[in-house]
Amino acid sequence: MNEFETRVSTVLRDHADGEVDVRALTAGAIGVGIRRERRRRVGRIAAGGLALTVLAVAVVGGSRWLPGRSGQGSAPVASTSQSGQPAGPVLVYQRPTYDPGTRAWAGVPTPPLDAAAPSAVQDPATVGTAGLVHFSFASEAGLGAATTVTYQTGPLWGVERAQIEAGPGCGCVFELSRSRPGTGPTHAAFLDGARSRPVVVGTVAGTYHFFEPCDGCGPVRDGVGTLVWQPAPGLWALLNIGGGEARAVQAAGGLRLDRTYRVVVPYRLATVPAGTTVQNAVMTFQGGMVTSGSHVGATVENSVAVRSGPRAAMVGGGNTVLPPMGPGVTNEVTTINGNPAIISTSPYCDFDDRSSECTRVTVPKVIVMIDLGQTIVALSNWGNIDRVAVLAAAAALTDLYTDDLAEWPTSPLP
Question: 186 φ, ψ to 5°?
Answer without folding.
Answer: -65, -20
